[in-house]
Amino acid sequence: MSPLLEVKNLRIELTTRDGVAPVIDDLSFTLNPGETMSFVGESGCGKSMTALALMGLLPEKVGRVAAGNIIFDGEDLSQASDERLRAIRGNEISMIFQEPMTSLNPVFTIGEQIAEVLRAHQGLSRKAAWAQSIELLNAVRIPNAKSRVSDYPFQMSGGQRQRAMIAMALACQPKILIADEPTTALDVTVQAQIFDLLTDLRKQTGAAIILITHDMGAVAEMAERMIVMYAGRKAELGPVDQIIEHPRHPYTKGLIECVPHIQSDPSLERHDLVEVPGIVPSLREFGKDQCLFASRCAYLTEACLASRPTEKLFANGQSADCWHAEGL
Amino acid sequence: MSDLLKVENLTVRFEVKRGGGWNKKSYLYAVDDVSFTVKKGETLAIVGESGSGKTTAALAVARLVKAYSGKVALAGEDILQKEAEALRQTRQKVQFIFQDPYSSLNPRKRAEAIVREPLDSLSRKSEDEKTKIVDDLFEAVGLRPEQQRLFPHQFSGGQRQRIGIARALATQPELIICDEPVSALDVAVQAQILNLLRKLQKDFGLTYLFISHDLGVVQHMSDSIAVMYMGKVVEHADRLSLFQTPRHPYTQALLSAVPTVDRAKRAQQKRILIPGDAPDPVNLPAGCRFANRCPAAQAICQTVEPELKSDTNGHRTACHLV
Amino acid sequence: MTRPVIHEEETPEAQHPFTEAWGMFRKNKSAVAALGLLALITFGAIFGPYLYPTDPFEMVWMPFSPPGQEGFLLGTDYLGRDLLAMIINGAKVSLMIGLSAAVMTVFIGVTVGALAGFYRGIVEEVLMRITEFFQVLPTLLFSMVLVALFGASLPMITFAIGIVSWTAVARITRSEFLRIRELEYVMASRASGASNLNLMFGVILPNALPPIIVQSALMVGSAILFEAGLSFLGLTDPNVVSWGQIIGSNRQYILDAGYTVTIPGVAIFVTVLAISLVGDGLNDALNPKLRQR
Question: Which of A25, C101, C118, C226 is deepest in the core (most CB within 10 A)?
Fold first, then answer.
């Protein structure tokens, strides 16, 4: 099976006050049709930037693709014209955001906004687009869709708004759905509903999902493969179950262990959480020829500071960019 | 151990304007007839989703929003009745750690002045003593002395939360209320703050009222737990009892909804989906507030509001079916 | 979508917010130039009368002598008075009135806005109705009535200008207070036992200042214009010179000796423009949203 999306040696540079920083540095991965892949990391690690690059939505004048290719369905998006990207955006690749309140336009009804997408990309008539909007709201399980379709965003709850966003994103049956922290602003019980919905919709439509999150639990429940990002670089990539079972990068290990997960046996003694000391380095540090995680790492050796770690491949499909990956 | 904080029948309501005519007042009961206790040196966690009233309850205990009725007794004294000088004394004993380290520090003040503020307003110590206390606090929360001169925007989120913790400790309070102290922080930084809070509790014998929506954090931090839904406590039990035998259908759904990396746990546990949304908090239904989403709802749940009843072990549940 | 966060690892310099704001201000070239010009004008207003000690009321030469003749750089007006001396002495009055009216505006506006925004409820209702009352008054007419009734002294003119223009400051202050009072650090100060007075003026006001400062800078400009308007209509203290008054008293001869009104007109225009540009620069420097870029 040929991959749906292939990102090769992608480098994205961001111009800041302190100069040019590679916010994405030599990133390669593939996404297969119908697969769910997760991007994990702290804020400032380049998860969202990758998504924006895929959408052709890098901040104008500030960010640019400096090297590498984004090959989607045989077409290199990094070379595509603005017009072509517009045609792809919302049609073949679409995106849902963290805060559904700010990503929906408050002065139009939900129906109008979904119909607008359909009319723009699929050339449907006004009437057909409206009918299709109701269908879509039904599909995302908004009760009483026929009347809710003329609601304004503020008349809906947070969970319903996120459903409406999903309906809009799926309107043109995209091949890839990028979900950027889709449930961070929502309650857990609503998050469970949204995850359930996304899983079902993926089965029905066959769309591949890129799930951007900081929650390892969500990754474990939703995704087949994951990429751990740190300071604009790939730290680890591979099947979710394998990585959670045996992380090969100290950062991945830290991300899994620093969170107090619900224990199946709460009577066990509670130990201190494993800390990942310090914070993500500043953009000035990005791009240095060393391991950028070194300052926070418990396995630090001189090799880590001498040069950037190379990718180590493992038989189970896991790969980690760490000098000590084999020993972990 | 003895109860440090005893909250009885606490109610907080807000006036809301709803269309239709002048002078038509409706009330939103954000906290409705809530009772709980916190033992000295322990941590009570209040868990709930947005709109459950957990933060409002905490603010009312700290006298930061006005309670409509009820009693909040700290070491036997009702603090809701205190005014003026007595209120100042109370404020020394109850301190607050806020959720958002980006908005909870005054951007125009240096870190040192922020930590010192409660001392300046509340205690009668000499300047030298205050300086000594601030120095010690910076050390206790893991900040360097030279960082005292910095302004909030020069700190990272985790460091800012450390300043917030130092400020809360300044007057040596008996009760510290932590309102979602880590939910605004990056995951890797959360662990640092949670470990610090546990260490401080051990070192200084602190009592925490810990507000959170994150059940993993709650399981890690608390000794007992109160689960709130729509302004009501629906379940209140010690940690083991609640996590091993959750009784209220809402608690069960909440626990099952948390995604986990534990593959065994995922396999053994069926996720209970609760459909729909919470009811309108201004026009509450007659019966149980959870009835419209409850997978086990019966006829009685639609009409009679269940009371919070205790079993022999002190595990309290507000559900007709328990 | 999360913005990329720029983290600092090492301990940064303890930079005061004002130092930082000045750094931003300096980037706005036209504002810096305007600030320099304004400094020059202020210098002229204060020391000009000593450096060029001609009495502005003395008739020194023939009327309507055009600029540059007989050693009178800006010429003479319809009574033969030295226009340069008048402009120099007028600068002081115009700037003084502009400044003191702005101070008064800020004082009333901030007090009303702070009380309304902090206490809400009935206090806010009453104060904002009063504010609206002053907003709907025909400002020029009302101040004319005041000056006509109580005499055209400088304090009275200042008062008349101040009393009709404080509403904008009050509204801005109130909206800032409404926003900031809900922030957690205000709550934190309350939990630390801060008094209401301290909360209002020690905690909230310093954080509400940026837009108030910008607004009051612009207020100086509009007060100068207002004064010019009043004195053009003859409602001014006849014992002092101001730019507006020069225009007003020479207006009949605008066709024969255009320079007598053009020169003070240009003075007003340049000063107000400079103040606006400085206000613009302050806005850049103090607006935290712009600072992120």
Answer: C101
